[in-house]
């Protein structure tokens, strides 16, 4: 296989060295990457919560609640189909025009779709058009998030000082627990502050409409940034790739495949811990039967540990390397999969332990990914390559994870859900063992990534 990037010709003698591109203050970089992904994940997770608690009753025909929940979770999966498309569209412009402008566009796309959900008519008002409009807005959410993560990861890592790329990369990752905490916190407050009838009538719309405020904040932060130094050099040299996605498949296919598989267990774990567990935990017929507010509190406790262990994982990855840290964590996830059934069957203490342990492991596996995936690709196609790997993993690992887990639990029992997690974790473990260490690769030149043979 050819190398991940072509060697660049040396400049001719007498050619003046290009001026160094303007740098971004580190605090502003970290704030922009954190705020932007927090907004995007907030938007994404309020849909996930509503897909379990609200949409089955409001957007689908009356009848079997389990069937309505599965239909609602099917619309949840639409975003994961859209995300690879978003990674291609936004990645193309991110590698052609620049990281900054593309990040602004992805945030606007996500925000418009989210606010749109907040004003949709329900099935009782417009019939079958309601779920179709819901699916369209969900597609828009996926499109925006497909371009968001890769750009935010590059914003952090391409501005990071030497030896701290793993830690800097955890700031966009922290957007996941922060966004989740905000999303579920808003739903919890609303469910406590109003009656069930008021919540279903109009209260559920509030979290979607509040997104408009967060979007303005995110845009204000991002518009104040310069282009990342690594890509500014590509722009100065006129070295952009005409079609980045073609370049990724032609020269970086091994990196794309392994990067995708490395992320699969992370996605399955997270959506089992959040979307599936919320539905299973509050289902009085086939699940645990907890009150909705009580289980949301349980989830918020677990997400605190997710947030704590995310930067810890970045520090460990900088010190010991990406590969050994992720191999150890993935092995721990396999053990956790076997323990899932016993934990969920042992009362409130077991449920809390399940959420705390699972979401702690989520922080440890998710934290290094914003460094690992970009390190697999050269600067000219890094936005496209890292985004494509991340979002293809979402399509494989997260899109139908809540659906599959709900079906497995209802048909065979909760232990089979743990077996599902074990299976995908073994796939990720094999991919990690086949991937080389990237900690010492430079993002300013042409890292070899996983394709080791030069032309």
UniProtKB/TrEMBL annotation:
Transmembrane intervals: 44-61, 73-91, 103-124, 174-194, 206-225, 253-275, 295-317, 324-345, 351-377, 389-408, 414-434
A Gene Ontology term for the protein's cellular component: plasma membrane
Membrane topology classification: Multi-pass membrane protein
Record has Cell membrane as a keyword: yes
Residues of the signal peptide: none
Domain of life according to the entry: Bacteria
Keywords assigned by UniProt, alphabetized: Cell inner membrane, Cell membrane, Membrane, Symport, Transmembrane, Transmembrane helix, Transport
Start and end residues of each stretch annotated as Disordered: 1-26
The keyword Transmembrane appears for this protein: yes
Domain named Major facilitator superfamily (MFS) profile: residues: 29-443
Subcellular location(s) per record: Cell inner membrane
SUPFAM superfamilies assigned to the protein according to its UniProt record, in alphabetical order: MFS general substrate transporter
Gene3D superfamilies in alphabetical order: MFS general substrate transporter like domains
GO molecular function, one term: symporter activity
Protein's job: May be a proton symporter involved in the uptake of osmolytes such as proline and glycine betaine.
Matches recorded under NCBIfam families: 2A0106 (TIGR00883)
Membership in a protein family: Belongs to the major facilitator superfamily. Metabolite:H+ Symporter (MHS) family (TC 2.A.1.6) family.
UniProt protein name: Putative proline/betaine transporter
């Amino acid at each position: 296989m050819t190398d991940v990037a072509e060697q660049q010709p040396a400049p001719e003698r007498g050619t003046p060295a290009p001026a160094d591109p303007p740098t971004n203050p580190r605090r502003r970089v970290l704030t922009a990457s954190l705020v932007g992904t927090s907004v995007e994940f907030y938007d994404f997770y309020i849909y996930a919560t509503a897909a379990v608690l609200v949409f089955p009753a409001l957007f689908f025909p009356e009848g079997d609640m389990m069937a309505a929940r599965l239909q609602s979770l099917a619309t949840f999966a639409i975003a994961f189909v859209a995300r690879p498309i978003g990674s291609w569209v936004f990645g193309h412009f991110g590698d052609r025009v620049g990281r900054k402008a593309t990040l602004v566009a992805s945030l606007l796309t996500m925000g418009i779709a989210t606010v749109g959900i907040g004003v949709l008519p329900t099935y009782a008002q417009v019939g079958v058009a309601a779920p179709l409009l819901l699916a369209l807005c969900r597609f828009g959410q996926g499109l925006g998030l497909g371009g968001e993560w890769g750009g935010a990861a590059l914003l952090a890592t391409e501005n990071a000082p030497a030896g701290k790329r793993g830690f800097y990369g955890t700031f966009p990752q922290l957007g996941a627990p922060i966004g989740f905490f905000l999303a579920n916190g808003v739903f919890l407050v609303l469910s406590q502050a109003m009656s069930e009838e008021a919540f279903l009538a109009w209260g559920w719309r509030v979290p979607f409409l509040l997104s408009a405020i967060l979007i303005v904040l995110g845009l204000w932060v991002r518009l104040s940034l310069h282009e990342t130094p690594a890509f500014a050099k590509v722009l100065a040299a006129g070295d952009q790739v005409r079609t980045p996605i073609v370049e990724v498949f032609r020269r970086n296919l091994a990196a794309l495949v392994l990067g995708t598989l490395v992320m699969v267990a992370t996605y399955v774990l997270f959506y089992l811990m959040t979307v599936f567990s919320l539905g299973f935990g509050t289902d009085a017929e086939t699940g645990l039967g907890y009150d909705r507010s009580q289980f949301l509190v349980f989830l918020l406790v677990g997400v605190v540990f997710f947030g704590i262990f995310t930067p810890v994982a970045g520090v460990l990855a900088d010190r010991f390397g990406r590969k050994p840290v992720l191999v150890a964590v993935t092995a721990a996830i396999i053990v956790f999969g076997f323990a899932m059934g016993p934990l969920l069957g042992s009362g409130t203490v077991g449920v809390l332990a399940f959420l705390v342990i699972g979401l702690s492991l989520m922080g440890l596996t998710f934290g290094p990914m914003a460094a690992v995936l970009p390190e697999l690709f050269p600067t000219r196609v890094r936005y496209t390559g890292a985004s494509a790997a991340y979002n293809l993993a979402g399509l494989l690992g997260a899109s139908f994870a809540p659906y599959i887990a709900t079906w497995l639990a209802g048909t065979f029992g909760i232990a089979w859900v743990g077996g599902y997690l074990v299976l995908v974790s073994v796939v990720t473990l094999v991919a990690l063992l086949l991937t080389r260490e990237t900690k010492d690769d430079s993002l300013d030149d042409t890292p070899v990534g996983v394709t080791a043979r030069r032309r």
